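agent> Task received from the user: take the single chain below, predict its 3D structure, and emit structure tokens. No templates, no multimer pairing.
agent> Plan: (1) validate residues, (2) run structure prediction, (3) serialize to tokens, (4) report one or two observations.
agent> Step 1 OK, no nonstandard residues flagged.
tool_call: predict_structure(input=
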Amino acid sequence: IEERFLMIDKESDARAYFQQIVNEKIIAVHAAFITEDEAQADHDGQMNLLAMQETPERLLGLAVTAGEEEGVRFLQVNSKLSSQLLRELLTEQIEKGCKIVTANLKDQLDFMPVTDSNQCFDVSVAAYVVNPIQNAYGEEDLAMQYAGVMMNAYSQVYGKKAISKVWEEDR
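)
tool_result: status=success, residues=171
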């Protein structure tokens, strides 16, 4: 499984990956964020009122896959790979006619460079249209219902632990 999931954490590798998928017509993308509350809390979990004046980096990274054989790449935001560059690379891909497939687009709109509904497909909205009385439309629910893939929910794996804490521990 690990050979299908690769981490990209440098600008040159990110550019090379997007060059590799430049002709893809559809790519699946998911932006991973820390919450605003986490971004504004100090290390003890307390809200820092002075930090509220700053705009902290909320994007942890971008999961991207293009095609069944390609696997998933996680482009990790760090000092060598900025969220601004990831947005630029994604924008270039869209401008070349690529459609973005994602879940819960609304939660990612701050980052996603989607300006036209024809540029994206939200699987969560599609699942709601197909079955509006369903209770949940999370990625794990959709994976099981439509692809037969069993995924653990975040809460099953990490409980109530903040995303930023999990991120730091699992690096």
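agent> Step 4: summary for the user.
Helices lie at 11-20, 36-40, 83-95, 105-108, 123-130, 139-147, 154-158, 163-170.
agent> Done.
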